[in-house]
TrEMBL record, chains A, B:
Chain segments annotated as transmembrane: none
Origin organism lineage: Bacteria, Pseudomonadati, Pseudomonadota, Gammaproteobacteria, Thiotrichales
Source organism superkingdom: Bacteria
Function, as annotated: Catalyzes the phosphorylation of D-fructose 6-phosphate, the first committing step of glycolysis. Uses inorganic phosphate (PPi) as phosphoryl donor instead of ATP like common ATP-dependent phosphofructokinases (ATP-PFKs), which renders the reaction reversible, and can thus function both in glycolysis and gluconeogenesis. Consistently, PPi-PFK can replace the enzymes of both the forward (ATP-PFK) and reverse (fructose-bisphosphatase (FBPase)) reactions.
Active site: D143 (proton acceptor)
Phosphofructokinase domain mapped to chain residues: 8-292
Residues reported to bind diphosphate: G12
Annotated site, Important for catalytic activity and substrate specificity, chain positions: D114
GO cellular component, one term: cytoplasm
Gene3D superfamilies membership: 3.40.50.450, Phosphofructokinase domain (3.40.50.460)
Cofactor or coenzyme needed: Mg(2+)
InterPro entries, A to Z: ATP_PFK (IPR022953), PFKA (IPR050929), Phosphofructokinase_dom (IPR000023), PKF_sf (IPR035966), PPi-PFK (IPR011404)
SUPFAM superfamilies listed in its UniProt record: Phosphofructokinase (SSF53784)
Name under which the protein is recorded: Pyrophosphate--fructose 6-phosphate 1-phosphotransferase
Amino acid sequence: MPKNAFYAQSGGVTAVINATACGVLETAKQYPDKIGKVYAGRNGIIGALTEDLIDTSQESAEAIAALRYTPSGAFGSCRFKLKGLEQNKAEYERLIEVFKAHDIGYFFYNGGGDSQDTSYKVSQLGDTLGYPITCIGIPKTVDNDLPITDTCPGFGSVAKYVAVSIREASFDVLSMAKTSTKVFIMEVMGRHAGWIAAAGGLAAEKESDGPHIIIFPEVIFDPEKFLAKVDFCVKKYGYCSIIVSEGAKNQDGKFISEAGTRDAFGHVQLGGVAPVIANIVKDKFGYKYHWAVADYLQRAARHIASKTDVEQAYAVGKAAVEFAVAGKTAVMPVIVRKSSQPYQWEIGSANLADVANVEKKMPREFISEDGFGITPACREYLQPLIAGEDYPPYKNGLPDYVELKNVAVPKKLATTFEVKK
Amino acid sequence: MPKNAFYAQSGGVTAVINATACGVLETAKQYPDKIGKVYAGRNGIIGALTEDLIDTSQESAEAIAALRYTPSGAFGSCRFKLKGLEQNKAEYERLIEVFKAHDIGYFFYNGGGDSQDTSYKVSQLGDTLGYPITCIGIPKTVDNDLPITDTCPGFGSVAKYVAVSIREASFDVLSMAKTSTKVFIMEVMGRHAGWIAAAGGLAAEKESDGPHIIIFPEVIFDPEKFLAKVDFCVKKYGYCSIIVSEGAKNQDGKFISEAGTRDAFGHVQLGGVAPVIANIVKDKFGYKYHWAVADYLQRAARHIASKTDVEQAYAVGKAAVEFAVAGKTAVMPVIVRKSSQPYQWEIGSANLADVANVEKKMPREFISEDGFGITPACREYLQPLIAGEDYPPYKNGLPDYVELKNVAVPKKLATTFEVKK
């Protein structure tokens, strides 16, 4: 009898993480001699710890196929990071208990840096706790901050959303600038890396195009320099269009806007730097301004997903299963760029040990000398990632996204497990 | 010699006001015996006052056709309202001076309620100042608050953007709710009327779907009732997805968030009610929340425009010219709904005297009894307006919007005119 597989989604969801799930599920079906059922964790790894598994074999082939164009995490995700074996052996023992009970021999974990740390720890189970399990990490993060892989599935679609949105808003503000709004500020995600903010720069194909200013987390915010550039843009182009990263920092290295709350990983929860920047502009020049905070709209925007991103998201899911059936473990499929023009890529492999807890920042040579824009090298890197459209089907004027049945696998254990936050 | 025409865009721009311009320009070319050149006002009526006219005949047919899928106001818009004849006769005399100098016999003014007040006043010029001019208002406003017309071009596309976005964000939050964000708040436009907020309700096709709560400007915000519903939703559905109108008001009838600045029409400039609502939720329940402010992104979002809206925007531009050449004046083409299922509409005509300064609010029967949702009647009204997609062409992963040359018409007057704010 082939072993069953466990698949879970972790961390912030994206417009294309379900395309990865689709790749995993459709590919697993092609190996019935090696993989039995695929059980999804309800709400990520928590589903494994609490024996709350979803039987994906209960879904129709059509529903699984529809995951390719449905944003969000179809099985539920979670923000929960397994501690080290030394600190919390009970969690690992519980995972083994659940995996054994359901005859699970494959572990697929779909997430970003924190999640790949979990993948790596689970991959060590075989050695340290004597339970053989094939463990494959699958990359996902809008932040684009995983190492080794050329890009992270989820990023290209956020990048496209941000570039499209700032182009549209810049056109709008240019129309209004004579008698009304002169400065527009759009806040985008990117906790510590400016990749998403940089993507906004793709909209500026010639000098006068917005965005005129990008505020990166990698460049300490200098209000004087910033205000001088705003002044220059309003005088020269009639308006100033600005992208600001939620992770923008002031001279003290602190986030310009700090909500004060922290997520389960201990990261500061951010939001609301755009109005702070707007006030700085207003105080100095008195210009009428508008600001937008895209927040979840950007990472959920499957309606304007990048075709490249959707294809890569599917491909890493497919590759993860192919790695597993080929006997690989403790690895993660990655995107390898062969060429930028024309854009060519293929799937490669990275060791989870090299991926976990490593954060890839924007290289300084991707940021223009004045710190407020992107360089041609950055454009060459980003451009292919937003290429192509991949529209979902519509019904009643709205995207016809799928909701799965998510039927629970009957529990086999008498024991329960309390997940400690 | 046929008279020339003047066309201008006014007030906040939309995703489809250029589709209307396209309708005007393409249709005017079909009547060379009646209409000479079409001059566009640079920055709306200010272009007429300052003799800053754009010669649209200098644009290629391709560029004019591309206006159909380009958001924003291609000639520049303005927030400027002509005063009454008694208060500022000089402005009207100046308009006549410019119109005479450029042999302008047709005046097309594309805007919302304040702008149609201007259209109406200009239409009176013929009578009171002895200058014969054919004057046609053309409806446009994302607020959907013009009277007589069944809907306002610009609204359907914002409605679609809001409904699509809240569906996507709701899917996202549902994925995260177990361990992270439980409450999501999206702020949308709509100064005094809740039409845009109501459109978000289209995304909720069954009880558990987001948005679960809509905060309308028409319904005084009751924090206790609101919090009780948030609590109910989080307990029943695991999360709560909320749309809040920028015009939401508290028990004193004041805007929940007031930026304190006013636009040229004297309207309070709003923004930032979403974080206020988020704090109310957090203070009561401590739930992790996220909020978004779509701001200009929503009205500029041509990438997800409603096909119905684009067609109607073009149709009112076309009809305006047809009205003019048929000898009508002081009228505005309107959308007349013949049937909702199947959706059928045609162009009708309204007198500017009946349009100016009348604001159409949401009927109470469109808002559910508890004040937090839309009724089936509202859904029947809104549904057809977001129907159909009308994607722009893409280049380099981005919408390939047109920028016109906007060549100035040589000035003929020695006099200048200072526009008073």
